[in-house]
Amino acid sequence: MLDLGRTFLQSVERSPNTLALVDGDVRLTYAQWHETILKAAGGLRGLGLVRGDRLLVVLQNRWEMATLHWACQFAGIVMTPLNWRAKPEELDYCVTDAGAKAVVFEPVSADAVYASEAAQKLPRVALDDALGTTSFDALLSGQAASGTTEATAEDLSLILYTSGTTGKAKGVPRRHRHERAAALAHVAQNLYRYGERTLGVMPLYHTMGVRSLLAMALVDGLFVCMRRWNGPQALESISSFELTCLYLVPTLYHDLLAAPGFACENVASVTKLGFAGAPMSDGLLKRLSAAFKPELFVNHYGSSEVYTFSIDQDATRKPGSAGRAGINTRLRVVKLDAVSSADLAAMHEEGQIIADLLGDEAFEGYWNRPDANAKSLRDGWYFTGDTGFFDQDGDLFVSGRVDDMIISGGENISPVDIESVLSLHPAVDEVAVAGVKDERWGQRVVAFIKRRDYVDTRTLDAWCRESDLVNFKRPRDYVFVDEIPKSPVGKILRRKLSAGEYDLDTTNNPTETTKE
């Protein structure tokens, strides 16, 4: 299999004069970008990094970030991107855990780098007016690397650090062959053609952002950088560059539809929508279908560890369905208390979703975390920690996380089922359901609502009663909030809701309880 450096060379050789990268005033063709990438690779060598070393990069989605990703692939250096919002203690941990040999940062992440003892011991490449041991301009000013790549398909391409919302972040090392297989699968499963154009807004420290970057190179496409999400700016990029495909988390689609100036004619160039990272509510699915009328609407379910679990290329066909196993994947659903990969759940029985580690996109284990490996890797299968079930057609439904499961009165209750029902009410803008401690029930089902228009508990309770939601799943409390707390990539943080970490919408009765 080709390594990723040679994969990029394919596009340079096929389409040297095709526009490849845009970031504000920066416009680079594949030939121009290749030249810049080789300069960056040479600069990293000049810092003393050699094949197999880890480079910690704390940048937003800017052209320098995308360039460094490819430079690492050519040089055989392991790209190790980190959330630019990381705190000093997170930087300390990741620098030490990864054994990083240098750090690249910018003003938005500078305070954390300055305050990190571990980072201060390393060469530090600073962008803009941040202060480091050298600058990015200086990195590009030395001798360029040779045009041939120094990596093989078996070398590590990058280490992605998971969000670590329940503890220390886990490093997910991935080889060139894992990354190339995942990118090829992304192209195939999203039916990308040569010359596709996408919005590069999903963070390049996250698997979705990396996949968009690699996939565009595979099809000689255009990657339009967006440093951080801005709805009007996204609309402007779609229109100006005639973007053809979007791959976002549901939260960003929600914000795009709400952006001032959104009009169907302004996004007419977009023919393919894809989403991942979190389930999409039935209500948002319908709104997007009406607004974009896409020829392809893909629900992608995956992770950093195994890029694709399952795919549904017609997300509106069976709302809530994550489809079937991807082209490089085998899936099973085992019982919630299963120890073995052979302890299968029955059809429609909620269990834990597991994936075959022999799949081409699957990682081989966590970085320096035998404890995490012992918990998640068994019998050659990756235990995802996600819950779900197969229906009678063989389609997978993802119901949540094992840790998010609400146990109320002895019943296992998935938040996603309830959220799907409530999302369809026209006055509900966003909804999240979580379990809150209750002396009688163990946990009480509580719906947290961000309103689009005024609605009260009585109305929403009647809505649930008239749906096909079974009674024991019906929320017992409704809390109206200003915002639903989410991670930087749009995942609902239910633990914050359960812990009371939210701001109430006090314009009307903020908390109301239903009649039993």
From TrEMBL:
<comment type="similarity">
    <text>Belongs to the ATP-dependent AMP-binding enzyme family.</text>
</comment>
<dbReference type="InterPro" id="IPR000873">
    <property type="entry name" value="AMP-dep_synth/lig_dom"/>
</dbReference>
<protein>
    <submittedName>
        <fullName>2-furoate---CoA ligase</fullName>
        <ecNumber>6.2.1.31</ecNumber>
    </submittedName>
</protein>
<dbReference type="Pfam" id="PF00501">
    <property type="entry name" value="AMP-binding"/>
</dbReference>
<keyword id="KW-0436">Ligase</keyword>
<feature type="domain" description="AMP-binding enzyme C-terminal">
    <location>
        <begin position="418"/>
        <end position="491"/>
    </location>
</feature>
<dbReference type="InterPro" id="IPR045851">
    <property type="entry name" value="AMP-bd_C_sf"/>
</dbReference>
<dbReference type="Pfam" id="PF13193">
    <property type="entry name" value="AMP-binding_C"/>
</dbReference>
<dbReference type="GO" id="GO:0047541">
    <property type="term" value="F:2-furoate-CoA ligase activity"/>
</dbReference>
<dbReference type="InterPro" id="IPR020845">
    <property type="entry name" value="AMP-binding_CS"/>
</dbReference>
<dbReference type="InterPro" id="IPR042099">
    <property type="entry name" value="ANL_N_sf"/>
</dbReference>
<dbReference type="InterPro" id="IPR025110">
    <property type="entry name" value="AMP-bd_C"/>
</dbReference>
<feature type="domain" description="AMP-dependent synthetase/ligase">
    <location>
        <begin position="10"/>
        <end position="367"/>
    </location>
</feature>
